[in-house]
Amino acid sequence: MSFKNVIVAQSGGPTAVINSSLLGVYEQAKKLGACKVYGARYGICGVFDGKFIDLDNVLHSLDNELLAMQTPASLLGSCRRRLPAVFFYEARSKADNFVKGSDYEKIASIFKQFDVSAFFYIGGNDSMETVWKLASVFKGTELNSVRFIGVPKTIDNDLEGTDHCPGFGSAAKFVATSFLELDRDLSVYDKPSVTIIEVMGRDAGWLTAASALARLNGAKGPDLIYCCENDFNLDLFLADVERGLSQNKNGRVLIAVSEGLDLKNQCEKFSGEGCDDFGHVQNAGVAKALELVVAKQLGCKVRSFELSLLQRASAHIASKTDVLEARAVGRHAVDLAFSGKTGVMATIQRNSNNPYSVEFSSVDVANVAGRVKKMPANFIAGNFDVSKEAVDWLTPLIQGQISIKFKNGLPAHLILAD
Amino acid sequence: MSFKNVIVAQSGGPTAVINSSLLGVYEQAKKLGACKVYGARYGICGVFDGKFIDLDNVLHSLDNELLAMQTPASLLGSCRRRLPAVFFYEARSKADNFVKGSDYEKIASIFKQFDVSAFFYIGGNDSMETVWKLASVFKGTELNSVRFIGVPKTIDNDLEGTDHCPGFGSAAKFVATSFLELDRDLSVYDKPSVTIIEVMGRDAGWLTAASALARLNGAKGPDLIYCCENDFNLDLFLADVERGLSQNKNGRVLIAVSEGLDLKNQCEKFSGEGCDDFGHVQNAGVAKALELVVAKQLGCKVRSFELSLLQRASAHIASKTDVLEARAVGRHAVDLAFSGKTGVMATIQRNSNNPYSVEFSSVDVANVAGRVKKMPANFIAGNFDVSKEAVDWLTPLIQGQISIKFKNGLPAHLILAD
User: Fold this and answer.
1) Cα A31 to the chain's mean position, in Å?
2) Torsion angle of alpha carbons B171, B175, B176, B182, nearest 10°?
3) Mean confidence (pLDDT) of chain B
4) Is B322 marked active-site?
5) Based on CB atoms within 10 Å of each CB, which residue in A40, A272, A335, B300 is the most buried?
């Protein structure tokens, strides 16, 4: 196929390298002959509103390319909008061409207006659901030739069908660096203390596991790592902490916990309340809830905090491997569309850990949408650690640094005018 | 005077550049003829125990010098031990030479045993109290010639007598970078939200003020900055937040709060309990307490977190200005001792902001010990911001980056064997 105009959008939680994927889509679409590459503002919402930016005006210069690669969070903005369920629209008469007044009709109308050949959605498993819905509904209509391609993105690394997700390596590098620096910080006192750090990951412990990488550079900790792949048992946890207090050097215990640990019915102070716009439960306060229990039960010095938003925004210490892969995955997504594919997500397939080597492929988005990939069993070691296999698998993903351009003593960012 | 052996120790909370000061003391002492430069483990505690390291074995090579400059937290360890009050020991009969069995006698005995000419203590205002006590008690004794010199260090920047403190610039750079990246992260959604970030600073708002530097590189926020130099008023705060929700782009409100804000009698959930070993109250939970109030009163999406220990350990994004000044202050401390001074702290005096220029001097530790320097009134702008004067003063301190050596994808650190 050939390209007329294409649209690219970003969705879900930001990452440090999501703009590198945007750059990859842009440059490859231009290379393959796209006339206009439109960036939709605020994800699929921008498509409804026809809120587009001609990316020639943003990413055309080498300076801006480099800035995009070091700017965290979605340059185009994001959203968490869910499209209506497909079954009704798929089953409609194809003669009717999109049910009148439906979201799909609005999108189709915009696509016709802007003469769109392909739509690229950079996001996580909810975004892949959107890609799947669009590809399903557009099939067999007058817009049958429009290609819908997913570009994977999530610091949680929990997308099915790809070895790992762009965004994860940089978040992992920040987490590991933070634990390395915390290990130094906590080593200075020779008194018992417990420090509990909460790492993002609602459903899978990939990012929490990355805390173990701090040990590669001489850190003693984290001493205990609790991923949500294991059932959490409060009594075992307290026993683990107590053992650390009595056996570790200086009685220091540094603990990594997944945000997604299920403490319900175990910690009275735990409140896993609140839902995001997709109905996912937002567990909050795992570390704080455990801090309160440790303080009460063991009576030692204890503190907790969350790495929180920093871990998905820390472009200043991005992994070069991640940045380059994010860009390459964006380019590959365009190749997929060009070769006639639709309803697929670009993927990374790993050939080997050492030497690290990958190639790019694709997977049917139906196999990604709404699903969660947990760590394999052999990545977990006992109740409170990860295995050598996990460390060997994680290590290549945090390698390399990009040369950051600074301004006023701070990283320079590319920021769109309002 | 000439040097035989000298002792250097580190105390109080770690910083990203405290080892650069250690390096400065070491290299200048060697240059001026010191035979041995001993590093005491765990601050003054290591002196009691005679736990010393010959720093020739640690800092002798260029490789290790460079590693020391990028390793956060006290290489030698730290402590929070307070020496006994001076009045009794000062008033003792000088013929008696240190009261038998006292802490001071133990220290004097170690100093005699190791033939010590000078003692350098890298620390904050509590450490300067220790320097003052030692200088006072040793005066007029047989160890009258031993020099006691303070080397300033604190991310809080609240030491009297010096324009600013080594460690502050790097913490400020991390805080500003974090707010810059958070500003990008929070800009991606077009829905109202409140994000409250707690910055270290028990008694002064210097570090919280540094959040404003994010605006130098295009950040819209922080929208509201509350330093502990202002009295905090909950009703005004809620009105400020409400105005931000209705007036800001996307209704986004990013807030920086000092850990030391006094919320007592204003927030029921606020618990300013707990004391460190010097009796300082450890305020905890300012951001969390405010989050709960905002959620209850304004009913909007709100989250909070603390930058916590990361801000004092983030050597991977240290300010080059800070690193070099920390080293130079260490060297200057040795010069002070060599010129016969005792009971003083090395200081930085600023000649101008632009072009930035400083020189090194000294101040009587009695004017530093136990005192706190708050921000001057002209650095505060209204209830919730800092002034242009503050920004102009802060900006030079975060300039420049050191070229970090990485290993395994993570910053390489210098770590002492146990």
Assistant:
1) 27
2) 160
3) 92
4) no
5) A40
